[in-house]
Amino acid sequence: MNIEEAKKIPITDYLHSLGYSPAKQQGANLWYKSPLREEHEASFKVNTEREQWYDFGAGKGGNIIALAQELYCSDHLPYLLNRIAEQAQHVRPVSFSFRQQRSAPSFQHLEVRDLTHPALLRYLQGRGIDLTLAKRECRELRFTHDGKPYFAIGFPNVAGGYEVRNSFFKGCIAPKDITHIRQQGEPREKCLVFEGFMDYLSFLTLRTKNCPAMPNLDRQDYVILNSTANVQKAIDVLGQYERIHCLLDNDGAGFRTTQAITAEYSYRVRDFSHNYREYSDLNDYLCGRKQEQKNGQNPVLRQKKGRGI
């Protein structure tokens, strides 16, 4: 995807694919609660004629590429175009009726149940995830979206929303927020930070495979960003920990997010992304999707001394 192709994607459709819907319309302007930060009143404007956005609370704006810079915490253009292209397959033309929207939100008739659907379990198996762990951490969602029935994996956040995934759909049920998993009993000194819940599930799977007798999954707390745009929300809750281990993606957004956390908490932060530096993220490491897969090796089965996940 090049710059001109990216600019042809309507910003409103792109935001809708990520789970964001406008709160109101004023002429050619659609107003949202900002996808870049937490707010109670909509102050994020998209002009559908000029295909420009402006966040009045942050004092920033621009085209879809400028939006991607803020969403993915990067100014590296090839990376941004790649992220837009990845999301573009989930973008569909959408229209908004605000008279109906008050009684008929984008996601309707939501049912939350135990994760059992065979298609969703096959999807997780294809990503290398231990199904017992996935059933414990995730939920199965049934809902209608734009009048059509769907089922998907739901991963809850602290605000009552869900990250939503299946083989064909990637988005969220608002509100968008981090997930903070705190263990029972005495407060933990260590917290592990992940970008997405698939990486979190990958860590649990790797730890269980590498240390089946004592995986010690409850010796630390966990923060899942659910988007690098949520880094400030994570920073707000990480202050209570003496040790903060970042296992973020090996890309510009992951590096910048780790840097932002390190700038706040200094020596308390350790970057563990070097343990899977040949892979784009922890799930790719789990599945062996890059060089080592080409060489016929599986990194999951090769535990390195002193560097095991």
Automatic annotation (TrEMBL):
Q: Which organism is it from?
A: Bacteroides caecicola
Among Pfam families, the record links this protein to: Toprim_2, Zn_ribbon_DnaG
- Membrane-crossing ranges are none
Q: State the protein's name.
A: Toprim domain-containing protein
Q: What InterPro entries does this protein's entry cite?
A: DNA_primase_Znf_CHC2 (IPR036977), Znf_CHC2 (IPR002694)
Domain of life of the organism encoding this protein: Bacteria
All copies of domain Zinc finger CHC2-type, residue ranges: 23-72
Its ancestry begins with: Bacteria, Pseudomonadati, Bacteroidota, Bacteroidia, Bacteroidales
